[in-house]
User: Which sequence fits this backbone?
């Protein structure tokens, strides 16, 4: 299809406008569209895409009768609101904590797929309790440092290295 | 290892060699990983980031990678050094100019880089010249295995490798190829490529991110889906479907130029030669644009036996680089000019920062002397 304005280049931008119940269509090439002041983003930054997908999430939450709104991750303190702003999660456990809200997004980002297929590490972290314990201790460590309780911080640090050493692989 | 040792040379992955190198300039695989038991970076204090950096650096520096490796404290490196690493595709712009403790482990031949504390704790990258995605994939898998012997990564059987951004979840693999598509551009058919990429769910970026594609006719094409598709399926799709299709488009456009529009082809090459051999001031964007046409001419001569008047004149130029002295002007030299005249390379080789006008003059001088013998 040729561009309606220059009748030369191939039309690659197709606009449909419905005003007062009247539908009009326009088919333009990139150059003419640009001249008409129609800005086309060929590459939408992934963060923008995620934010726009998330913006429609509340409606989905209501539909499925649950809401993660107000929920915060017990391991890192992260909330869904922060994810909406930053498009990055706080810790690996956020995938569990916010699973219901994240699942539709994961599905959209990965072409409908929701289950891993591919490499498994030779040592899948089996001991989930250990990982949670480490995450929680690191969170406590941060709080202790922030409140300048260095004695407690030192104790927590020793605990972390003891757990890490216990399970270290050589 | 000093960065000036890099800045005066061409990277191995950009030396014009490798399968299908006239169109597929280079292949790259990236993997994202996060340490188990740590938060993702957006929630980490600087102390925790430093802890992650220390652990990963220690393991990475101890690996046998078949090449010498060096470490750069990215957060402490001078701005020009960081720009140089970005220009050489060794680290990302986000990593170069991000926040907090972060570093990079780089193999001396530049085929391997590990970015520590970029968006994820660890981003591994293997880069090779030409169409070599399978080779990149097997090398990066081996490196990943070696790291996994010593550290645990955040992984869930359902979601795979857990990443800070859900768009990287699963295999966390990003396969990409850098394609040189000047003939599709000249013949006004580049939309074909964009449409094919969109239909196949692939992302297209310019050489240095968005907006730079027009300058160099170099496009990076990469997969977007990382969950529910295995690493080998991603690579196979690139090698058996995506790359052959796009290579065919570009080849057909080159044939079309030669058989139906030789004047258009010669005009582009002659203008590029005239400007590059005579200009006194030349911007980085203009140099990239013109060098792209020289690369097209040399490749059409080498691979298709093209010998239009302009191509003949181009191929009669002698290579003035020390290592190539008196041979025909090579793609390696065009790529060398391409890389060496980027702003950070120019300034590091010159030894001090230069304002844009002085950079343009120095760039023009380097190109003139390379192309006039």
Assistant:
């Amino acid at each position: 299809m040729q561009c309606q304005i220059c009748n030369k280049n191939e039309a690659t931008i197709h606009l449909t406008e419905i005003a007062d119940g009247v539908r009009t269509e326009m088919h333009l090439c990139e150059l003419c569209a640009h001249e008409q002041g129609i800005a086309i983003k060929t590459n939408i930054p992934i963060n923008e895409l995620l934010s726009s997908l998330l913006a429609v999430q509340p409606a989905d939450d209501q539909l499925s009768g649950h809401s993660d709104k107000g929920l915060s991750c017990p391991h890192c303190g992260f909330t869904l609101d922060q994810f909406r702003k930053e498009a990055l999660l706080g810790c690996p456990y956020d995938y569990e904590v916010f699973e219901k809200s994240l699942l539709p997004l994961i599905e959209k980002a990965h072409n409908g797929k929701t289950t891993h297929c591919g490499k498994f590490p030779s040592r899948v972290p089996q001991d989930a309790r250990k990982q949670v314990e480490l995450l929680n201790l690191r969170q406590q460590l941060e709080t202790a440092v922030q409140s300048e309780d260095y004695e407690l911080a030192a104790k927590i640090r020793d605990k972390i290295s003891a757990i890490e050493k216990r399970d270290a692989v050589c | 290892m000093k960065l000036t040792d890099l800045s005066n040379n061409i990277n191995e992955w950009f030396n014009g060699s490798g399968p299908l190198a006239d169109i597929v300039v280079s292949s790259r695989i990236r993997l994202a990983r996060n340490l188990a038991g740590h938060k993702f970076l957006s929630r980490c204090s600087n102390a925790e980031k430093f802890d992650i950096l220390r652990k990963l650096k220690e393991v990475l520096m101890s690996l046998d990678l078949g090449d010498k490796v060096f470490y750069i404290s990215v957060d402490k490196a001078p701005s020009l050094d960081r720009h140089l690493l970005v220009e050489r595709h060794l680290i990302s712009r986000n990593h170069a100019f991000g926040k907090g403790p972060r570093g990079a482990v780089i193999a001396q031949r530049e085929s391997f880089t590990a970015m520590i504390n970029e968006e994820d704790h660890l981003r591994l990258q293997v880069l090779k010249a030409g169409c070599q995605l399978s080779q990149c994939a097997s090398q990066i898998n081996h490196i990943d295995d070696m790291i996994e012997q010593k550290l645990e990564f955040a992984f869930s059987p359902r979601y795979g490798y857990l990443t800070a951004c859900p768009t990287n979840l699963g295999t966390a693999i990003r396969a990409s190829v850098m394609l040189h598509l000047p003939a599709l551009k000249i013949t006004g058919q580049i939309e074909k490529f964009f449409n094919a990429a969109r239909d196949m769910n692939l992302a297209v970026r310019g050489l240095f991110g968005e907006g730079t594609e027009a300058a160099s006719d170099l496009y990076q094409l990469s997969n977007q889906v990382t969950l529910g598709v295995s690493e080998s399926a991603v690579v196979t799709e690139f090698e058996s479907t995506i790359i052959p299709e796009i290579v065919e488009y570009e080849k057909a456009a080159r044939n079309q130029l030669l058989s139906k529009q030789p004047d258009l082809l010669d005009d582009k090459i002659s203008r590029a030669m005239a400007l590059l051999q005579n200009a006194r001031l030349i911007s980085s964007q203009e140099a990239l644009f013109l060098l792209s046409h020289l690369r097209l001419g040399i490749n059409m001569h080498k691979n298709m036996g093209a010998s239009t008047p302009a191509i003949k004149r181009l191929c009669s130029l002698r290579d003035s680089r020390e290592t190539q002295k008196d041979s025909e002007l090579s793609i390696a030299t065009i790529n060398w000019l391409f890389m060496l005249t980027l702003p950070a390379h120019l300034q590091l080789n010159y030894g001090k920062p230069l304002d844009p006008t002085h950079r343009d003059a120095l760039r023009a001088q380097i190109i003139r002397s390379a192309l006039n013998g």
Summary: Chain B has 15 helices and ten strands. The CA atoms of residues 16 and 27 of chain B lie 12 Å apart.
